[in-house]
Amino acid sequence: xxxxxxxxxxxxxxxxxxxxxxxxNWVRMQHEYSCLYCVVDLxxxxxxxxxxxxRHNTLEVTAGLIASGLDPKSNxxxxxxRVPAHAELAWIxxxxxxxxxxxxxxxxxxxxxxxxxxxxxxxxxYPNLMAADILAYKxxxxxxxxxxxxxxxxxxxxxxxxxxxxGVNYFPLPEPVIQGPATRVMSLRDGTKKMSKSDPSxxxxxxxxxxxxxxxxxxxxxxxxxDALPDSANDLETRPEAANLIGIxxxxxxxxxxxxxxxxxxxxxxxxxxxxxxxxxxxxxxxGAEMARLxxxxxxxxxxxxxxxxxxxxxxxxxxxxxxxxxxxxxx
Length: 332
Ligand code: TRP
Hints:
Blueprint: E1 3-8, H1 16-29, E2 34-39, H2 41-44, H3 51-67, E3 76-79, H4 85-94, H5 99-103, H6 106-112, H7 121-135, E4 141-144, H8 149-166, E5 175-178, H9 212-221, H10 240-253, H11 257-264, H12 269-295, H13 298-327
Parallel strand pairs: 1-2, 2-3, 4-5
Helix pairs in contact: 3-12, 4-7, 7-8, 9-12, 10-11, 10-12
This protein binds tryptophan.
Tryptophan (TRP) binds at residues 5-7, 9, 40, 43, 130, 133-134, 142, 144, 148.
């Protein structure tokens, strides 16, 4: 049976990059597969989080998932720390994965920065927890962005080594479902950097809760180049900011960049930005409004997470039970 698992960190405001790169695709998968969508709060604390902010962000991301169109009845939506299987299986995987494997992870190098000695052990072991997230449910398909591909390969290596070491064919090797480059949304200030919640400039990203005025202003100020829009996407290669705005328009309109170029060929960016604003507002405003409405009712959001955790736990528990037996731990 195919099972989809994906995770999202509750570390800050959800933005257009999260929506076009992840959430929208999750919504599209929800009726084809049995899906688990996890707010990965244990991953969040690999970097410092203010406790109150973390508590709030977990609910806000949950609201974002539901407001984007995920149905909490047909999917399992939950937060990671409520299901102990994640941390338990991660420990076993800490003992399967090799230091040499983790030393190659580029995200650790990026996030730890220059002062690697001062990074948390959790940040280093992050990919093992991610493998546990997936394999606690024997998930087969994992929608992730390009930047998570290396972690997913590590999850496959862990599954393979576990199976080899214990002489079993127990864990499936999960397949990445890589979301295409069309949905890689870049910063509005620098077309070569990913749109990110950690960018200090608010103007670099459009948040899902931004008002129509905020969206209009950020798009108006978005960096461009002096040329008009080209008539072919081939001409965008050396124009990262133009490529990004055209790509965003395309993703919001279910078109490809080349079709957008044909539609706006020769137009000035000022005119194109107005059309883009109109698109962005028409997609995001209803989602932002629904998020605000859901956040008024925190009991409902908590209920979704509690029920989701119970359903997730019911799937993970027998898988963990058997894993512990294979390893020779007396747990059951
Ligand atoms: N590391 C992922 C990210 O930052 C989030 C994540 C955690 C995840 N566990 C996962 C994604 C399991 C897919 C599957 O985007």
